[in-house]
Amino acid sequence: MDAPSKTIPIVPAPATSATPEEVSLYEISRKIYPRAVHGWFAGWRWALVWLTQIVYYGLPWLAWNGRQAVLFDLAERKFYIFGLVFWPQDVFYLTVLLILSAYALFLFTAVAGRLWCGYACPQTVYTEIFLWVERKIEGDRVARIRLDGEPLSARKFGKKAAKHAVWAAIGLWTGITFVGYFTPIRELVPAIPFALGPWETFWILFYGFATYGNAGWMREQVCKYMCPYARFQSVMFDRDTMIIAYDEERGEPRGARSRKVDPKEKGLGHCVDCQICVQVCPTGIDIRKGLQYECIGCAACIDGCNQVMDKMGYPHGLIRYASQNALTQHFGAKEMWKHVFRTRTLIYTGILLAIVTAASVSLALRNPLKVDVLRDRGALARESQPGLIENVYRLQIMNTTEAPHAFTIRASGLPGIAVVGVEQPVKIEGAAVQTVPIRLQAPADAAPPGPHKIEIHVQAIDDASMKRDERSTFILPRL
């Protein structure tokens, strides 16, 4: 017999007069106003800003052998880098360059964190430049905050317009320079704005707008959300990697105080909680919370903190480059550097040096002559004269040097084989490819019927090192 069912009374929730609270699932990004900072690391950062920009803006204007020193001529499929000319067949060197870049990134990150991001990344470099323009026009941090809080006026509009005009000019010139690596810049600049081709116009505007948008508007958002390096950097770190770190043992407990106050008497650490380290950070983080993926390793917080330590009469190094092991185990500088050069970094260094050495030797020994042999598929073999068999070939001869050379062509592998049908020597201009049709003739009784291995030899008259021996086949038919 079934048990009697129980009725559970439903008690209504008590009425409340409180308004429902709306909770946002997404953080609204706040504008960061980085404070200007001076110091040893800021000097290094600006030195690299100058170096990278002199190289970037200056290289297209350098001349070499009557041409642009660095030019990536996509139409002609030639890459000119000073005295070297690279062709599509040299894609191996591009692969080596990418591998070198990857291993260098692994090595630098394992040694000292995001050095590339903090000092040489284009996003960091152009953000520094754009911030400098902003400070010159609108003032330092407090002045910029005050200006943004003001209602729109002629003064505010003028400052904002001037700033964006300078930003746009820098972005536009950056785009012109970028395209100048692919279209000779001495031809590109006079063609602006009415004689430009559609692709040149598109890439100038696209690259200029990207520079303006990334460095002027998005700034730290690129480093925090768009750059993949921020996400996978942790796999390259370990406890012996030098990072920008806050010495919690020395700094805590933090608190404001007068310069004349002895922190030990008040039970305070050396951190005066001035927030300077946060105000100078381009990504707006508080380094005192420990290692964070948003930190780009620019060391601005080190310079800012050291300035405060000088004012307070405390020693430098409250925020400094240090490994996690160095902080917890109180390593000295010598012991910390000993742990930096550990097995992992030595392996990266060894691989990097091996690749650089191999690539350098390969470039030094690179044969500037390239030859491809193609058989004529229309007629494999024919009898040109009684007792003489003829095969037809096409030689694609590539002279990768910038000087013209004359070449002789001969063949070996069969008795009596000879090159006919081409006027020798064959002259080929510098950095040029020429297709040379040739005919090879051999006696019909030089070997049994069938295919036979031969070699075609191409050699420069004025340079014995420019020589190629390419294998092919010579067919003797049954007569």
Give the rounded overall mean pLDDT.
89
What is the number of helical segments per DSSP (H or I, 4+ residues)? 17
The count of strands amounts to: 16
Helix content estimate: 40-55%
Biggest sheet character: 5 strands, antiparallel
Tell me the number of structural domains: 2
Oligomerization category of the chains in this entry: single chain
Poorly predicted ranges:
1-8
Q: Which class best fits the helix and strand makeup?
A: alpha+beta
Instruction: Calculate the terminal CA-CA distance, rounded to whole Å.
Output: 110 Å
Rough shape? elongated
Strand content: 15-25%
Radius of gyration: 35 Å
3D structure, described in words:
- The protein contains 17 helices and 16 strands.
- It is of the alpha+beta class and 479 residues long.
- The chain has 2 domains: 341 residues, no CATH class; 108 residues, Immunoglobulins (Immunoglobulin-like).
- The strands form 5 sheets. Strands 8, 9, 10, 12 and 14 form a 5-stranded antiparallel β-sheet that branches. Strands 13-11-15-16 form a 4-stranded antiparallel β-sheet, with no helix packed on it.
- Strand 4 and strand 5 form a beta hairpin.
